Amino acid sequence: MRRNKFLISMFFLAVVALLSACTNNAGEASAENEGMNMEGHDESSMDESMDDHSMEEEMEDESMDGHMDHDNVVSLNDSTGENELGIPPLLQSESDAETEYTIRAQKGETEIFDGVQTKTYGYNSSFLGPMLQFEKGETVTINLINELDENTTFHWHGLEVAGSEDGGPHEVLEPGDEDTIQFEVTQEAATLWFHPHPEGDTSEQVYNGLAGLIYIEDQNSKNLELPSDYGKNDIPLVFQDKIFDDEKQLNYEAAANEDGTVGDTSLINGTLNPKLTVDKEKVRLRLLNGSNARNYTFKLNTEDDFVQVATDGGFLNEPVSMNELTLTPSERAEVIIDFSKMDSDENIALINEDGATLLPFEITDQTGKNTEIPDEMNDFSVTEEEKSLPVTKEIELFGMMDMVTINGKKFDPERIDFTQEQGVTEVWEIYNKPDMMGGMIHPFHIHGAQFKILSRNGETPPKNERGWKDSFSIAPDETVKIAIQFKNKGVYMFHCHILEHEDNGMMGQVKVE
């Protein structure tokens, strides 16, 4: 089936290339970079572009194999709650004088199922990775080692660093290679993460287990006095879904779907059938959608409210009360649940939109620390100047399966799609173009910067998105405007964070000078 899809795709690409060669593309103007304009359309690269009608015909033919809008994806199995949730270890600095870490990408075996060793990837372990702690203002040194038998990179998702240290597909480490990066932490307190980003192989490496967490702290986060006892009332939750074969192995080649690989087995921090034991106190959950493609809508089975206090890149100005929260792949959010008001004997669990039990809670009779959530947590704002800036970058997301594009093109590592001046704020407009099947949600991510969402379809974004972001969900026929400034120079990726779409070329690059 995969070979047939490939042959069909190549046939249509050949036809489109022939038609494109005979067509006058009057709507495109020449500019820098051998004919590229600010919208990312490159006349010299039109042989890579795809005719919408041809693409849509192929999409219709293949729609039975895909999941266009992710509304009909396979359901997750309920967590039985038989295993206490594993907490990623806090990696200790190797130096007393500064913050220095060594991160190894490696293969291993992990007992996910009782008595079975599953082949996995991990950072400094057999599966997943540790938590790295940074402090705003400090200089961090990280030694990188590739102990895999394939190329990889180390991408620091959400971290504002120079392009040469960002870990995109240009910063490849071959098997056995080592490298050292060093940077100053300039951004505010946030929950970030790191994962591989090799061209064409990101989806499989993340699926096999390469993912780790980063906490940034600053004086404001300390002054807020939110729950911060790591692993006790400050809990990282890395949500991923997998398919295991009959031998309880992660057989990515068999499970892979070009429109986004999803599974029926839920893992949190790599733990199967997890539960979380909590005291009667407020508990801070740092949610990361670390899946390849699945969207999660988080709820409590009791329909009680919880409070969101932070987005991808920092604290909200004020806590936002809600009873459900949706995160697309790579998005993060920090929420607080008040277990002091709940009955220890009550059946309480975190569930998804389908009602599948993700994480049962076991509440002890022990009373924990009594903390209050401050009414004011940050001074984030969108200025009048930012609101009045013209759109300088237009991005059109389109397609499904292996026919995904940005501005009609697939990724080319030799092509610069946009340029932007360091330290200058610009407005990007991102549009998710629907197709004849309706289209699907794309999670959109930009490397190397935290940005502000200005509007969704011309309207002010919801309260829980009025904070620093590096990824966001964009629905079919939706237009999102963002204000973005890069603090550092270099080449940075922007792409759909459905990892199979990324690997299939739904990615571009901006050069910051």
UniProtKB/TrEMBL annotation:
Pfam families in the cross-refs: Cu-oxidase (PF00394), Cu-oxidase_2 (PF07731), Cu-oxidase_3 (PF07732)
The annotated regions of Acidic residues compositional bias extend over 45-63
Identify the residues that the record assigns to the Plastocyanin-like domain, covering every copy. Answer: 106-220, 249-341, 389-513
Question: Lyase: is it a keyword of this entry?
Answer: no
Top-level taxon of origin: Bacteria
Signal peptide positions (record): 1-26
From which residue to which does any coiled coil extend? none
Cite the entry's keywords alphabetically: Metal-binding, Oxidoreductase, Signal
Q: Which CDD domains match?
A: CuRO_1_CueO_FtsP, CuRO_3_CueO_FtsP
PROSITE patterns assigned: MULTICOPPER_OXIDASE2, PROKAR_LIPOPROTEIN
Q: Where is this region: Disordered?
A: 29-69
Family, per the entry? Belongs to the multicopper oxidase family.
**Protein name, entry field:** FtsP/CotA-like multicopper oxidase with cupredoxin domain
